[in-house]
Amino acid sequence: MFSRGKCDNVKYDRLESGSEAKPFKKKICALKIFYFSCFLFILSIIAFIYAQDPSKAPYAIPTGQNHERKDSDLPTHLPFLQTPHIYHTSTSPSSPKVCDVQVKDSPVIKVSHFNTYVIGSYMEHRFSEKQIKIIAIVLRNEQATYSCVMCCNGRTVTSPAEFSIHTDHFSFEYGTASITCPINSTCLTPTHVALTDRAVLGNVESFQPIRNRDIQTAFPYEFTICISVMYDYKSVLNLVQSMEMFRLLGAQRVVIYKTNCDSDTQKVLDYYEKRGFVEIIPWTIKKHIVVSHGWKNYESPGQLHYYGQIPALNDCVYRYMYQSRYLALQDLDELILPSKVKTWTELLPELENMYGSSVGFEFENNHFPFTAKAHMDYEQDKWKTVWGTNILNYIDRVPNDPNVFNNFKIIVNPRLVLKTTVHGLLDSVSTRSTVRVYNSIARMYHFKNLTYPPDTALIRDNRLWAYANDLIPAVSKVLQACGLIEA
Question: Which residues cross the membrane (predicted)?
Fold first, then answer.
């Protein structure tokens, strides 16, 4: 059967019966072939299982024809990069079940029968009776009636939901909504909730965990920054400069609602995420809704204001309500800089002594245009290969008109906030929600490409340079660690 294989030249001890030697040799040879075949078969099975195990390559980017098209119904000029995070997709085999229903711990969950998308669910402790607060995106002209289905110790309890649409929708079709679920005596400690059509009973497709179930008085973070939304982002140098400035100011956590970015930006995000400084919230609303690239619907077509910025900010407030003493609600190109001290840790006690602790603090926006003259005192040649603009080169600001309203961003105790918006608060537990901080104490530095009248008398303001000696080596260290510049 085999021609001159391994078994043909094998020598055995002489058997007493010559007539039995030949069959014995064949038997031994057959056993070796059998054992060798079994070994190969087992090895093949192990290799096949390993190849099919997705956990062996948790950071792999999908390939093939379904990669980017499947992720987005809108084309973008930057590749979408998946970021490892704590959420499970609806098809994940490891997703747990409660009350015999799958759990989805993701920030965008569609409600059946309605154009409603649940972002996050949170226990609300600040009223006489506890309730569940759901942050959602809703189609404003849709006549929706909701029920809250809560999971309590393996059984479900249903109650009618009430909702209000936030007023800062900027006339887009969709807006942010606060949906409340009353908690009754039959379910005092729900762990998960689902939003359903009140007219359809028993239609629970997935539960979302309820966060903030316990009131915390000790906070893991003193200052957290809520960033929304990262979309088509590639200004790597500016990202690192902002992150390191946030550190120098005293922030311990930065939360980014991310749609997509380029590969170098992803390297930087991975760097900070692994060190616990950044939390990435996957922001996938554009799979369901056409998002606008601006805040004026007649200039930037779409169904939802500016990439869904407002629902993301509201979710961030509730997500970190009992994790952080203060929240700064701002963008990556904005820095809130104190004028007399160097950190927020020093600034906030001073502000609370002046204005009290039951208000948020407004910091007036001041533009520092990249179109102005560059001051090269802190120019770094080794940064020139990295995409972005060195903010240290731009210390001239456009004067604000004191006779008109000037926008601002806030730092606030999140436990004061009921509804937030891009600039300030829509609703709070305090009768006086925010106060404007004097520019002599602190202001917001906004670095961006900006055109201004040629006869504008720019104001020299080099406050940022007070951080330069600490900022420059910190930025270089991160760029080197990410392989973006040489050591």
Answer: 33-51
Tens digits of per-residue pLDDT, 397-449?
999 999 999 999 999 999 999 999 999 999 999 888 999 999 999 999 999 99
10 Å Cβ neighbour count for 93?
Answer: 6
Enter the pTM of the model. 0.80
Is residue 466 within 8 Å of residue 431, measured between CB atoms? Answer: no
Domain boundaries, the chain: 97-209, 221-481
Listed in sequence order, the residues at least 6 apart from 18 whose beta carbon sits closer than 8 Å to its beta carbon are: none
The CATH code of domain 221-481 reads 3.90.550
CB 282 within 8 A of CB 83: yes
In DSSP notation, 60-78 reads: PPP-STTHHHHH-SS--SS
Instruction: Return d(Cα 284, Cα 311) in angstroms, integer.
Output: 12
Angstrom CA distances, 135 to 207, 310, 319, stand at: 15, 10, 10
Task: Classify burial at 216, counting beta carbons within 10 Å of its beta carbon; exposed 0-12, middle 13-18, buried 19 or more.
Answer: exposed
- Tokens coding 109: 């969950």
Q: Report which residue type is found at 65.
A: Q
**Cis before 204? omega within 30:** no
